[in-house]
Design goal:
- By secondary structure, this protein is an alpha+beta fold.
- The chain has two domains: about 80 residues, Sandwich (Immunoglobulin-like); about 180 residues, no CATH class.
- Helix content is about 40%, strand content about 20%.
- The relative contact order is 0.08.
Length: about 350
């Protein structure tokens, strides 16, 4: 049924029931200007929240059939009658840019609301990466209790941030981080440079969490050092899953071949070497690099034709050379067996 213009609602039957509702964002802050539309006995009524997030008035029926909630810049939805409506900001590149331009206090509050939104998707990683210098301080403050913040810090892969992530305790399982979150950290520790990082990789590689194990094995392989070989050999002895033997054996074969470090003055040949190190066969697509604002960090997507395995590699330019910093499987959390064995 089409909604009637607000002007026509003046002619509806006598209003018999008063109501008052509150509109808030994900942090329970009042939202002004939220439009609330009710369908009552075939009539449409339109109200708007005030500066305190309150909308009140009269309606011609006790229970509206349908309620539409909307506000510019926020995700609208249809629901029933409630005493409070919670709206999430639309999480897109434009919103990330808006938050990045705010002063520090406002940035953190807006970032908290954004990160609590279920509309925040992995596809926004490119936008975070482009403005990483402006977002990293906020991500570090949010990482203690926000899984998405940890994931983005792992993607950006600044060494001091990784030291911080390794020291953090796991988030509660209700946050959905746990194993996949440990995978994102492990996948970002290529060329670990302190004892805590080596210990983290060892625990993941020899443990029972399959995605965390996968990330650690891949990182140890690409690091290709005597210590990574030792941990891989330990992981093989402790491995109890059939899929793990193939992956660990392939990693050990690569390490024992003594490959050159994954660094180069030119990014393009380095990307090809990284792709060959991850998977010896053909690739469906090797994407063009996407850079940060300073042009000293790059993301490259690598897609395999089978199983829907899609990787993202992070590169940093340091002292005139590009170096691999992280490789993550964008399908993390899905069918491990399919992704681990190519």
């Amino acid at each position: 049924m089409p909604r009637l213009p607000a002007l026509l609602l003046v002619c509806t039957p006598i209003f018999s029931t008063d109501f008052s509702v509150k509109t808030v964002d994900r942090l329970d802050r009042p939202l002004a200007g939220v439009v609330i539309e009710f369908e009552c006995d075939g009539y449409w009524l339109r109200f708007e929240s005030n500066q305190d997030g309150i909308a009140e008035g009269m309606r011609p029926c006790a229970t509206p059939v349908l309620t539409f909630i909307s506000k510019e810049g926020f995700q609208g939805y249809a629901t029933g009658l409630r005493s409070k409506y919670v709206l999430d900001r639309i999480a897109d590149a434009q919103e990330l840019s808006r938050i990045a331009t705010l002063d520090k206090g406002a940035q953190l509050e807006e970032a908290k609301a954004l990160f609590a939104s279920p509309s925040l998707k992995p596809e926004l990683s490119d936008a975070f990466f482009y403005t990483e210098a402006r977002w990293r301080p906020m991500l570090l403050k949010l990482a203690a209790d926000q899984s998405y913040a940890r994931s983005m810090l792992g993607l950006i892969a600044v060494p001091e941030d990784l030291h911080f992530l390794v020291a953090l305790p796991d988030l509660p399982s209700s946050d959905g981080f746990w194993e996949v979150g440990r995978y994102y950290v492990a996948a970002s520790l290529i060329y670990p440079d302190d004892e805590a990082e080596w210990r983290f990789l060892q625990v993941c590689a020899t443990g029972e969490e399959r995605w965390a194990k996968y990330g650690a094995i891949q990182t140890l392989k690409l690091t290709a050092s005597p210590r990574s070989q030792k941990i891989l050999e330990e992981a093989r002895l402790r491995n109890k899953d059939s899929f793990g033997f193939t992956v660990i054996d392939e990693a050990l074969d690569y390490v024992k071949s003594k490959p050159a470090p994954l660094a180069d003055e030119n990014l393009e040949p380095l990307v090809r070497r990284v792709a060959a190190a991850i998977h010896a066969g053909s690739w469906e697509k090797i994407g063009a690099p996407g850079f940060n604002e300073a042009q000293n960090k790059a993301l490259v997507n690598l897609d395999l034709p089978a199983c829907g395995s899609n990787y993202t590699a992070t590169f940093h330019r340091v002292d005139g050379k590009w170096a691999l910093r992280a490789v993550r499987d964008r399908s993390a959390g899905s069918n491990v067996d399919c992704n681990l064995v190519h």
